[in-house]
């Protein structure tokens, strides 16, 4: 009987959805260069998201800077590098087309290193 009461109590709780990470890239999934050319939207808590590429976070202007440990981040830095989900998605989609890695754009990589046909 106690199990049923506990189950009923759990079922009555609201179910919350949180998107943990969304990747944006001009390089197709499965291509070896995709990780370098991927801009991700990552949940950072309290409904705020970071736009991330290779460990750096973008501000609203699209300028990336490295994210230090939480104990070393100034409140101003956090405010400049955290967004609501819609804003983060829009920024990440724009920046994904602008990523340059080792002097190459996504178009360069796809031209010079096309994916193998399956």
Question: How many DSSP H or I helices?
Answer: 4
Strand content: 15-25%
How would you sum up the global shape? Answer: globular
Mean pLDDT across residues: 90
Number of E-state strands: 7
- Summed up, the domain count is 1
Low-confidence stretches: none
Draw up the topology in text.
Blueprint: H1 2-11, E1 21-25, E2 38-45, E3 48-53, E4 56-58, E5 64-66, H2 75-80, H3 85-96, E6 100-101, E7 104-105, H4 106-112
Antiparallel strand pairs: 1-2, 2-3, 3-4, 4-5, 6-7
Q: Can you walk me through this structure?
A:
- With 118 residues, this protein is α+β, with helices and mostly antiparallel strands.
- The chain has one domain.
- The chain is built from 4 helices and 7 strands, in the order αβββββααββα.
- The strands form 2 sheets. It has a 5-stranded antiparallel sheet with strand order 1-2-3-4-5, covered by helices on one side.
- A hairpin with a 2-residue loop joins strand 2 and strand 3.
- It is globular.
- The model has no long low-confidence stretch (mean pLDDT 90).
State the main characteristics.
single chain, 118 residues, alpha+beta, five-stranded antiparallel beta sheet, 4 helices
Structure, briefly:
With 118 residues, the protein is an alpha+beta fold.
């Amino acid at each position: 009987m106690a199990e049923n009461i506990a189950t009923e109590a759990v079922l009555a709780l609201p179910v919350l959805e949180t998107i943990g990470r969304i990747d944006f890239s001009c390089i197709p999934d499965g291509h070896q260069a995709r990780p370098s050319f991927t801009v991700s939207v990552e949940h950072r808590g309290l409904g705020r998201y970071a736009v991330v590429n290779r460990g750096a976070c973008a501000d609203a202007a699209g300028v990336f800077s490295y994210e230090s440990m939480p104990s070393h981040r100034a409140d101003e830095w956090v405010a400049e590098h955290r967004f609501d989900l819609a804003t983060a998605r829009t920024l990440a989609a724009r920046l994904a087309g602008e990523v340059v890695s080792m002097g190459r754009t996504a178009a360069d990589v796809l031209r010079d290193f096309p994916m193998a046909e399956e």
